[in-house]
Amino acid sequence: MAPASSADMDAVQLLTEDHEQVRQLFEQYEQLVSSDADAQEKQELAEQICLMLTVHADLEEELFYPAARDALDEQDLLDEAQVEHASARDLIEQIQEMDPTEDLYDAKVKVLGEYVNHHVQEEENELFPKIQDAGIDLEALGEELATRKQELMEEMGAE
Fold this sequence. Notes:
Four Helix Bundle (Hemerythrin (Met), subunit A), mainly alpha, elongated
């Protein structure tokens, strides 16, 4: 059976799939580091990670978090998520400005992965269950997210 397209997923499914894809990319990066891969290969993968994280953060900040803020009384999780996004964006910018042969390049990608993993755990274990119980039309929001994701990927020159 073929996997569902992004347009067929609800918002939580789409975001969770993004989380899994990025997790796999971070694992691939760790394998490149441990196998002493060349700098260009690492940089290409790091750029892919940075692009996916930027698009994902934009989606959450533009569409998902505002819908969650409207539906949930509890704002602390969303405030923390926004701060975590700012920290990740800062690291992404640092990575994108570096050459992969520089000291700390691999460390910054690793720390970015750790930040993202922490953020994903909070979303999937705390925020998403609350959203699923909040009565939001997750199908409609999923369609909006899928459309906007495609637009952002095209704007950023992704394949």
